[in-house]
């Protein structure tokens, strides 16, 4: 039990390192073996890295303290028997993933939330960098919303950090343009969200945009009737139907503009 706990703590502490290594592997991998041809889109990486830089600066100032605050204000204390052990860690990751599925659905379906989440969907191509292309207020509000299941279920802080590590790696993977063998991707997609599932979520056709909301486990969309029947193809148009991407400053301001 003690060994698993220390392993979990170590994994939590290694979050930036694990995230960084996975990012580099995918970023290089998708340039060596691409699934879809990379179009020439001016300033696209500047937009993605620009939005990411804002999150990176704000994260230690607001997001990380918010998660730590939540971990210190749980509504009840789990008995030791319900805290330690791999089984409870896996259960917490599944529950937080389920929460994230419904939160993502809300980001699409609640009009004021959609104004912010659209910034992510304006991206006209996908690769690992798309995983970090979010409006800072969406990232902050998502962290705030996540305090609800953490407080209600009294999820240990280390479990939250391990979830966040798995989550960010899964998000980088399912946005990536990495070419995988069709058989391997099909098998993997039965368990987890692969690029073939998530790219359909970014297909520039509205009914596909509002589908395939899952992040880590792929079962949530079939379970809650939100899986699109569209199959990903390398030529699939990515972005939002009849909308063009915007300059960086516009991306930050667009949720507040009348015609955002
Ligand atoms: Zn979305």
Layout of helices and strands, plus pairs?
Elements: H1 2-13, H2 15-32, H3 44-72, H4 86-109, H5 111-121, H6 136-153, H7 157-175, H8 182-189, H9 195-201, H10 206-209, H11 220-223, H12 248-253
Helix pairs in contact: 1-7, 2-7, 3-6, 4-5, 4-6, 4-7
The protein binds zinc ion.
Please give a handful of descriptors for the protein shown.
260 residues, binds zinc ion, mainly alpha, 12 helices, 0% strand
Rg result: 18 Å
- Report the major sheet: none
Encode the helix/strand succession as letters. Answer: HHHHHHHHHHHH
Present as ligands are: zinc ion
What is the approximate shape?
globular
Helix content: 55-70%
The amount of beta strand, in percent, is: under 5%
Oligomeric state: single chain
Q: Averaged pLDDT, please?
A: 90
Count of separate structural domains: 1
Output the structural class. mainly alpha
- Count of individual beta strands: 0
What's this entry about, in short?
By secondary structure, this protein is mainly alpha-helical. Helices cover 62% and strands 0% of the residues. It contains twelve helices and no strands.
Word description of this protein:
The protein has about 260 residues and is mostly helical. It has one domain. Helix content is about 60%, strand content about 0%. The protein contains 12 helices and no strands. The protein is globular and about 55 Å long. It starts with a helix and ends in a 7-residue tail after the last helix. About 30% of the residues are buried. The mean pLDDT is about 90. The site of zinc ion has 5 residues, from α4 and α5.
């Amino acid at each position: 039990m003690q060994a698993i706990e220390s392993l979990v703590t170590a994994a939590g502490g290694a979050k930036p390192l694990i995230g960084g290594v996975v990012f580099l592997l995918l970023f290089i991998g998708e340039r060596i073996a691409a699934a879809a041809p990379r179009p020439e889109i001016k300033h696209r990486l500047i937009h993605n890295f620009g939005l990411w830089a804002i999150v990176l600066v704000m994260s230690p100032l607001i997001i990380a303290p918010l998660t730590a605050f939540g971990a210190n204000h749980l509504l009840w204390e789990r008995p030791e028997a319900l805290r330690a052990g791999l089984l409870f860690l896996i259960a917490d990751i599944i529950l937080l993933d389920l929460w994230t599925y419904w939160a993502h659905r809300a980001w699409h379906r609640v009009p004021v939330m959609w104004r912010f989440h659209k910034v992510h969907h304006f991206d006209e191509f996908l690769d690992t960098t798309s995983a970090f292309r979010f409006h800072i207020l969406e990232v902050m509000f998502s962290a705030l919303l996540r305090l609800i299941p953490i407080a209600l279920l009294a999820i240990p802080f280390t479990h939250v950090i391990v979830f966040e590590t798995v989550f960010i790696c899964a998000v980088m993977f399912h946005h990536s343009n990495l070419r995988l063998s069709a058989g391997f991707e099909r098998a993997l997609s039965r368990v987890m969200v692969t690029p073939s599932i998530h790219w359909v979520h970014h297909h520039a056709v509205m009914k596909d945009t509002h589908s395939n909301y899952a992040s880590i486990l792929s079962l949530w969309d079939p379970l809650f009737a939100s899986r699109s029947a569209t199959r990903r193809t390398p030529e699939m148009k990515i972005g939002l139907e009849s909308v063009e991407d915007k300059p960086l400053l516009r991306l930050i301001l667009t949720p507040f503009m009348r015609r955002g």
